[in-house]
C-alpha cells in the first residue's frame, strides 16, 4: 500500500501557481485539480466510466448524507464506498460539518460536538470529531477532513474567534481519533472567517497539530470574490509548501484560476453539476443558458472549442430540446460537459504552470470571455 | 441505399415462432425483436452507446411528441432524427394516433383526420393521414406507421367496425401520400378491437392496399392477457408470412414470449423503461421492487444470472440507495438493466427458434419464474 504523500513538482516563476502530485494507495492525483462532488455516493448523472472519460482523478463524497443514508456501517459492510459506488480512484470525504449547519435542524453546538436533527426524518444525532472521523474511515475515504464548525458570514469577530478555537480543538481530537496505518490522509481545515489574523492563528494551531494537507474552509459563503481572494492571500503564505492546499466549496472557473495563481492545489464545488441540471453550461467564452429560445435551431455544439463527448455528438438544439422536455439525458449530458470543462481547465492550467506560462494562460482565459 | 426488406429465416417446427431478418438502409434487425421506446428523441436515461451496449437494434420515437416539440421541421433542418439524437441505427416512428387519443384534449374525429389540442400549450392541430406520414418522413424514420384511430376498450361492435373502416381509408391515404424512393418502409395497422371477424376484415383491407409490414394495434388497452392472445391467434394467420408482424405497445416479458410463439416478430413497450424509473426491475425469476427494505444490505446483483453492466458492477443495496435518494443514476442504471433484460430475452428466443427448441425455452422461462 502506498501511503499518502505530496510532491511539489514545479513552482511557477511569476505567480504562486504550483504544479504538484498527490500519491495515494488508489492512484496519483495531478494538481491543481478540481474534485467533482458525489454527495450521496454518486456524482449526479455521471457513471464512473463517464467520470473517468472526462478525466476525474478524485471525487468528493459527503459524510453527513452517507451517515444518514444508507449509513456508514452499511457501506462498510458492503465493502466500502469505492466498491459500493464502483469507483476505484481516490475519494475525499468532507466531515459533515458544513451540512450539519446548512441542512440539519435544531442544531446545538457544544464542546463535545453538534447535536442536530436529520433533514430526512427528524431523528436526532450527535456528530463529534471522533464520530466524523470514524464515519469517514468506515466509508474508506482516501482523504479525511477534520470536523469543524462552518461559520456563517458575516459573523462578529468574537464569534469567529471562539468558533475557530473550537474547530482547532476538534481538529486535534480528529487526529487523535484516527485509526493508524490504512494509508489515508487527514486534512485540517483553516477557519477564521474573513479576519486575516484569525486565519493566521488558525494556520498556526493546525500546523502545531500537524496534518497531511490543509484546507481553507468558510469561503464561498456569500462574500465578494475579492474578499475570498484576500483571505487566500492572507492565509496561504502561512501554510507549508510541501503539503497540498485545498479551498473547499469553490467555485466558478474564475475563482479556480484566481485560486491557482495564489497557490491553491485542490478545489471542489457543486457548481458544474448543479448548474448543469439547471441548464447552465460552462464554455471557453463564458456561461450559456441552454433553455434560451436562441438555441432552438442551433446546430453548433455547446462550445466549438470543446472536445468532450457531448460537444462531439450533440447540438445545442438537441440539448435545449432535452432540457425543455425534462428528459434525464439533459442532466446527464449537461453534467458531462460541465465536469469536462472544469477538469479540462485544470489540465490546461497544469500544462501552463509546467511551461511557466500561467500568466499568459490566465490572460487568455479572461480574454476569451471578454471578447465573445 | 438498401431498400427495406424482410427475410423469414426459419420457422419453428412446433410453434408459430419465426426467426427473421429485416434489412434497412441503416442496418439489419434480427427478429423477434423488442424496440425500446424513445418518445421524445431519447430513450429516457440511456445514451446511444448504452443502447448499443445492451443490443438495441432499432428504437421507436414518437410522432405526436416530436411534432409538437421541437417540431418535425426543426428536426429535419437539423439533419433528421438520427443525427439530432446521435443514433445511427434504425428508428420506427409511430403515427401519433395513440397519443392524440391518450394525451390530446378536445379531440374531434372526422373523415379528414383528428382535431386535437396539444397537452403542452393547448394549441389546436389537425392531424391527418397525410400530415402524419409527412411528419414521419421529415423525421427520417426507417419504418413509418400508418395513421389510425386507437379504439378505446371496451367499445361497442358498431363503433369498432366504423372506426376500423375509417382507419383502413386513412391507411390508404398514408400509402398514397408517401414520398417515393427513400428506402423507408410503411407499416399498416390492423384494428378491429377484440372481434375476430373485424380483425380479419381489417387484415384483408390492409393487404389489398399493400404494406411493407403489418402491425396489430389496439392491444394492451386493458383487456385480459388471454383476450390479447386470442386476438393474436385470430389475426396473425391472415397476415402474409413474408412480411414482418409487429404488436404495438406490448408488453410484459410473458406477453412477448406468448406473442413470439404465435408468430409475432416485433414489439415495443414503455414497460421496461417506465418500470425502471419506478424501481421495478425485471429478472429471470420475475420482477423485483428495488425500493424494498429487504435489499438495503443485499450485496448481490439485481439478477445473478444477468451479465449486464449493472449486474456486473453494482449491488442491489446500491441501487436501492440510489432509488431512495432520488438520484439520476437510479433511473439510468435501472433502465439499463431492464432494457438489457428485454433485449437479452429476445436474443435467447432467437437462438431457441433457430435450434427448434422454442418450446423448451418457453417452458424454462416460466419454470424459472415459478420456482423462485
From TrEMBL, chains A, B:
Q: Does the keyword Metal-binding apply?
A: yes
* SUPFAM superfamilies according to UniProt: tRNA-guanine transglycosylase
Tell me what reaction this enzyme catalyses.
7-aminomethyl-7-carbaguanine + guanosine(34) in tRNA = 7-aminomethyl-7-carbaguanosine(34) in tRNA + guanine
Q: Which GO terms describe its molecular function?
A: metal ion binding; tRNA-guanosine(34) queuine transglycosylase activity
Q: What class of enzyme is it?
A: transferase
Describe which pathway this protein belongs to, using the record's wording.
tRNA modification; tRNA-queuosine biosynthesis
InterPro entries to which the protein is assigned, alphabetical? ArchSynthase1/Queuine_TRR, TGT, TGT-like_sf, tRNA_ribo_trans-like
Cofactor(s) for this UniProt protein: Zn(2+)
GO biological process annotation, one example: tRNA queuosine(34) biosynthetic process
Which segments constitute the tRNA-guanine(15) transglycosylase-like domain?
A: 15-370
Q: Where is the active site?
A: 94 (proton acceptor), 268 (nucleophile)
The ranges of region (RNA binding) come to 249-255, 273-277
| Assigned protein family | Belongs to the queuine tRNA-ribosyltransferase family.
Description of how the protein assembles with itself and partners: Homodimer. Within each dimer, one monomer is responsible for RNA recognition and catalysis, while the other monomer binds to the replacement base PreQ1.
In this chain, Zn(2+) is annotated as bound at 306, 308, 311, 337
Q: Which domain of life is it from?
A: Bacteria
Gene encoding this polypeptide? tgt
Gene3D superfamilies given for it?
A: Queuine tRNA-ribosyltransferase-like
- Cited function: Catalyzes the base-exchange of a guanine (G) residue with the queuine precursor 7-aminomethyl-7-deazaguanine (PreQ1) at position 34 (anticodon wobble position) in tRNAs with GU(N) anticodons (tRNA-Asp, -Asn, -His and -Tyr). Catalysis occurs through a double-displacement mechanism. The nucleophile active site attacks the C1' of nucleotide 34 to detach the guanine base from the RNA, forming a covalent enzyme-RNA intermediate. The proton acceptor active site deprotonates the incoming PreQ1, allowing a nucleophilic attack on the C1' of the ribose to form the product.
Q: Name one GO cellular component term.
A: cytosol
CC cofactor note: Binds 1 zinc ion per subunit.
Q: Which residues bind substrate?
A: 94-98, 148, 191, 218
What protein name does the entry list?
A: Queuine tRNA-ribosyltransferase
This enzyme's EC code(s): 2.4.2.29
Keywords linked to the UniProt accession: Glycosyltransferase, Metal-binding, Queuosine biosynthesis, Transferase, tRNA processing, Zinc
